[in-house]
Amino acid sequence: MTKDHDKLSDPALWSPDTQLVHGGVLRSQYGETSEALFLTQGFVYANSEEAEARFLNKSPGYQYSRFSNPTVAMFEERVRLMEGAEDCRSFATGMAAVTGAVLSCLNAGDHIVSARALFGSCRYIVEDLCPRFGIQSTLVDGRDLAQWEAAFRPNTKAVFFETPSNPTLEIVDIAAVCQIAHKHGAVVIVDNVFATPMLQKPLKLGADVVVYSATKHIDGQGRCLGGAVLASKQFIKDYLHDFHRQTGPALSPFNAWVMLKGLETLPIRVERQCASAAKLADHLAGLPGVSKVIYCGRKDHPQYDLAQRQMTGGGQIVTFEVAGGKEAAFRFLNALRIAKISNNLGDAKSLVTHPSTTTHQRLKPEARAELGISDGMIRLSVGLEAADDLALDLETGAKAARG
Ligand SMILES: *Cc1c(COP(=O)(O)O)cnc(C)c1O
Fold this sequence. Notes:
Blueprint: H1 2-7, H2 16-22, H3 48-55, H4 70-83, E1 87-91, H5 94-104, E2 111-115, H6 120-132, E3 136-140, H7 145-151, E4 156-162, H8 174-183, E5 187-191, H9 196-199, E6 209-213, E7 227-231, H10 233-247, H11 253-285, E8 290-294, H12 304-310, E9 317-322, H13 325-335, E10 340-341, E11 351-353, H14 365-371, E12 377-381, H15 387-402
Parallel strand pairs: 2-3, 2-4, 4-5, 5-6, 10-11
Antiparallel strand pairs: 1-7, 6-7, 8-9, 9-12, 11-12
The structure holds pyridoxal-5'-phosphate.
Pyridoxal-5'-phosphate binds at residues 93-95, 98, 119, 121-122, 162, 166, 191, 193-194, 213, 215-216, 225, 227.
């Protein structure tokens, strides 16, 4: 009894569902129920002595919303609790978070190893941006541990990957890659967006840094852009703290406030989306003209066992292929009445994407082929609509694809 009672006084020991509703709340003198929105750039001081003390870090409080803000601080603390991390910094977008995590810990002359199956903009950071600043990069097949091992050099300082990957849902063995990287003294940064914060805990598997686009499941209702980086206090202090303050990728208090409300419903939304995704993956596999279905929760996923080991669910994304290439895929998408054509994901609305002509258009055809992104491939982000309606919608699409 005493033990259970103690548990309630420490938010770190609450269950995730409780942390996501109450975690990090800073109540003002008015005792508001819902988190307050502090839409302010700066803060005023009672006198010059207080201002001086604040700038010397000797008086607690806020200075300027590029550094921190009470609403933003509530968001960071709630995400930190959810992830079980020591510290968190929030960003205006997921890409600002990725850029901050990667660039803040690297210098000219360093080397980064990354899985080649990456979100398009993440691949730009590693493949195009890093080399411009003298940071060499190597891309590997993230599924192949021998390639990871072979890619390390004496100056390799960081490893970056996402798992499952966009859009082909390739899985990287987080624990195994962390073991290799740490042997070589490299920091491991994981983009955990596709797994969602609910289904996979990279820090527990050995990763040093976790990155989110909060734009996806954390908002989950298509409104705001945002991002977060979670890491040890040491990593934030040594690398990210100054980078974040001085380069200015701060999350807007308004967006932080929207995201705080998103976090409250994150577990039930993701649970429902995953349940529908599992049903729809099986449904798609039975539709004529659908030549392939990739879903992390299906036994025919090539890395099903690994997915089962490091994820607690199959996820919210289903990727599939229709016979007949681009024309058939376009007929499929254009016939849908409920799922919308959009390159976003994690939304309450089901969204469908044709990766080869949108998110992965920038890649050379050979690079797309290497990643297994065919012209008939469609990525489905399953929303909160009734699964039966979505199943019917997909049947309509498949019928149109057959022509
Ligand atoms: C969307 C996304 C990003 C980028 O996030 P933004 O909020 O759009 O900047 C990065 N990685 C993955 C895996 C994503 O899905």
